Amino acid sequence: MVMTKMKQVQCWGCLWLALGGYVHADAPAFDRPGIAFSPATLGAGTFTWEQGLPDVSHDNSPGMHSTLYSADTLLRAGLASNLEIQLGTALFNRLDTQTPAGHEHTNGAGDSSLALKVRVPATAQDFSSAVLARVSFATGDDAFTAGDRQYGLGTALAWSLSEAMSAGLYLNATHLSGQNSYTVSPNFNVALTETVGAYVEAATTQTGHAGRNSVAGAGVSWMVTPATQLDFSADWGLASQRGNYQVGFGVSEFFN
C-alpha cells in the first residue's frame, strides 16, 4: 500500500501570514503545498484552481514497492468574507507496484470531496485560524478509493512571529468505516523574497490501533505572477516509515 496521505489534497499552511508584509494585498492564500491548509478564506466571488502535476507517494514496504502518481485537483470558491466551499478530486491516478511476482500498473480516478472552510474571527492581531469540514465520497476506481464515505474535521492555527516569519499548527480528525484517525502537524514558514516562500513541517497520524505514521519535510512556493503560484514539496517517513516519501509539484491560479 502506498504511504497514506495526511490529507486528500496537499495544502500550504500559514505562509500567507509571513508574506503579508511583502506581497500585494489582493494576493490569494492558496491551500497547497504542505500538509496544513491556509487559515485564510477567499473573498466572496473569487475562485482558485490548485493542481498537482502530479503529487507522488512512494511506499517501500517489505515484499512490495509501490508508487502512486496523483493529479490532485482542488477548486475553491469564496461565498462570503469568511466562508468558502471546496471541491476536490483526482481525475487521474497511476499506481505502480513491484513484488517478487513482477510489476503491475493501474490507472484510474480517485474519490471526490466536498468541504466548507470557515475563518474564525481573530482574537489577536498576530493570530488567525480557520476550521474546515470535509466529506469524501467513494467515487474512485477500485485501486484508488477508500471504499466508503469519509468525514474529516480540521483546524489551522497561525501565529505571526515577524514581518517575514510565522508558525502554525494543524489538527485534523477523520472517520472512515467505523475507525478514527488523528493528525497533528506543526509548521514554520518564512518569506525569502517578495515572491518566494519556504516552510518546514512535521506530522504524526494515529489511526485506531493500526499504528502511527510520522513524516517530516519542507517545501517552497513561487508567485510567478500576482495570481499564479508554482510549488514544490517533499515529506519523508520517520521511524518505521523510513524509505517512504511524498513529493508534490503543483500550480495554483487565482481568479478574481
Topology:
Elements (H helix, E strand, L loop, with lengths): L14 H4 L28 E15 L2 E17 L2 E17 L2 E7 L3 E9 L6 E11 L12 E11 L4 E12 L2 E13 L4 E12 L3 E15 L2 E10 L7 E11 L1
Antiparallel strand pairs: 1-2, 1-13, 2-3, 3-4, 3-5, 5-6, 6-7, 7-8, 8-9, 9-10, 10-11, 11-12, 12-13
Characterization of this structure:
The chain has 256 residues and is mainly β. It has a single domain, classed as Beta Barrel (Lipocalin), CATH 2.40.128.130. The protein is 2% helix and 62% strand. It has a twelve-stranded antiparallel barrel. The longest helix has 4 residues, at 15-18. The chain is globular, with a radius of gyration of 18 Å. Mean pLDDT is 89; it is low at 1-14 and 16-25.
From the N-terminal CA to the C-terminal CA, the straight-line distance is 40 Å
- β-strand number: 13
User: CATH topology, anyone?
Assistant: Lipocalin
Question: Strands across the major sheet, in which order?
Answer: 1-2-3-5-6-7-8-9-10-11-12-13
Q: What is the CATH class designation?
A: Mainly Beta
The biggest sheet amounts to: 12 strands, antiparallel, barrel
Approximately what portion of the residues adopt beta-strand conformation? over 45%
Estimated structural class: mainly beta
Number of structurally distinct domains: 1
Shape: globular
H/E element sequence: HEEEEEEEEEEEEE
Ranges with pLDDT <50 over ≥5 residues?
1-14, 16-25
- Our Rg estimate from Cα atoms comes to 18 Å
Write down the overall mean pLDDT. 89
CATH superfamily: Autotransporter beta-domain
